[in-house]
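thought: user wants a sequence for this fold. calling inverse folding tool.
action: design(structure=
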């Protein structure tokens, strides 16, 4: 699964520019709330660390932060399964407050809701554990933030990250770090 990360990052770099509709004005002053849990929140963290030009808050919980409505923040829901209860809650509150919304998921209720509401959506390949799909999710989120005008073009950075990870993985194969560590852990708790 780890060895698949470079391919996931390249997938995101090669992704067609997401159609964002009403999200096109850059929400630079109000920022973006990215809602996610578990492995999906990990992808949100990666994107938030990369988005230097835009305030991005990773929200792990129900609803959206109290300040998001008055600030008119955009909300991006990231849920690999598309069925995460807390992330669905954030979407519902964002809709009630009429905030700009976008979605990253592999399917599920979140993609169905986004289709009904007409929210911009990036559907990532499914069938993995959320933590094993961090490249898909982080890359898709970065591409959405790029399309929103909140950050520069993420494609070169995604391609560079893929090359760096690929090189590190190639080094690890030759160094056998994992095998050496496993050998030292034999018969230990």
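)
observation: tool returned 189 residues.
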């Amino acid at each position: 699964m780890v060895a698949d990360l470079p391919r996931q990052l390249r997938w995101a770099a090669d992704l067609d520019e997401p159609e964002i509709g009403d999200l096109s004005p850059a929400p630079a002053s109000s920022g973006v709330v990215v809602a996610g849990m578990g492995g999906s929140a990990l992808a949100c963290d990666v994107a938030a660390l990369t988005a230097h030009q835009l305030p991005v808050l990773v929200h792990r919980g129900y609803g959206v932060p109290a300040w998001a409505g008055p600030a008119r923040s955009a909300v991006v829901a990231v849920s690999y399964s598309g069925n995460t209860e807390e992330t669905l809650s954030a979407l519902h509150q964002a809709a009630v407050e009429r905030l700009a919304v976008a979605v990253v998921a592999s399917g599920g209720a979140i993609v169905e809701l986004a289709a009904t509401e007409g929210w911009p959506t990036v559907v990532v390949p499914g069938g993995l554990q959320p933590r094993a799909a961090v490249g898909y999710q982080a890359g898709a989120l970065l591409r959405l933030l790029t399309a929103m005008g909140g950050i520069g073009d993420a494609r070169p950075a995604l391609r560079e990250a893929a090359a760096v990870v690929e090189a590190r993985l190639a080094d690890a194969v030759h160094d056998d770090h994992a095998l050496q560590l496993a050998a030292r852990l034999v018969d230990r708790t």
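thought: summarizing for user.
answer: Here is the designed sequence. The beta strands are 32-35, 56-59, 74-79, 101-105, 121-123.
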